[in-house]
Specification:
Length: 136
C-alpha cells in the first residue's frame, strides 16, 4: 500500500527480498512506546489500511503531547467506502486517549484528493511545512 501511488512508487523499494531497512524500521517502531502502527481490516479479515501514530512530548503548550499521523493508506479498491473516515475518527479518539492536545499530519501538495479528505475531517492548513532531505 505504501507504494500504491505515483509518489510512493518513487520513494519506496518493495523488491524481493524486501530490504532489511523495512524490518529494522518496523522493529524500532514496534519497540517504541510512543509509536503505534495500526491496521484496519475489512469484514473478510483482509488488511485494507495502515497508519502510524506517533506521540511527541515537547516543552511548549505547557509540556504538551502532540500526535503525528503518518503513512496513511487505504487499499485502492476499498477507497470511497468510508474506511478512511472511520480510521481517522479512531485515530483522533486514540490521540485524545493518550492526552494529545493536537493531531497533525503532512501531506504532499501533489495529493489534492487527500487534502480535501483531511479538510473534511476538520484539519486546517494552519502552518507552512518545510522539509530538508538529508541524503546519505
Amino acid at each position: 500500500m505504501l507504494s500504491d501511488d505515483e509518489l510512493g512508487r518513487m520513494r519506496e523499494d518493495f523488491g524481493i527480498p524486501l530490504s532489511a531497512k523495512y524490518y529494522t524500521a518496523f522493529e524500532n517502531i514496534n519497540n517504541d512506546p510512543n509509536q503505534e502502527l495500526i491496521v484496519v481490516e475489512n469484514e473478510a479479515d483482509e488488511i485494507i489500511g495502515t497508519l502510524q501514530l506517533s506521540f511527541i512530548q515537547y516543552l511548549t503548550y505547557r509540556g504538551g503531547i502532540r500526535a503525528q499521523i503518518e503513512a496513511v493508506r487505504i487499499r485502492r479498491e476499498d477507497r470511497g467506502k468510508g474506511y478512511g473516515n472511520a480510521f481517522f475518527r479512531w485515530a483522533i479518539e486514540r490521540a485524545k486517549q493518550k492526552g494529545a492536545h493536537l493531531l497533525q499530519l503532512t501531506t504532499d501538495k501533489q495529493r489534492p484528493e487527500a487534502i480535501r479528505f483531511y479538510e473534511k475531517l476538520g484539519f486546517t492548513a494552519s502552518h507552512e511545512g518545510m522539509k530538508l532531505h538529508l541524503d546519505k
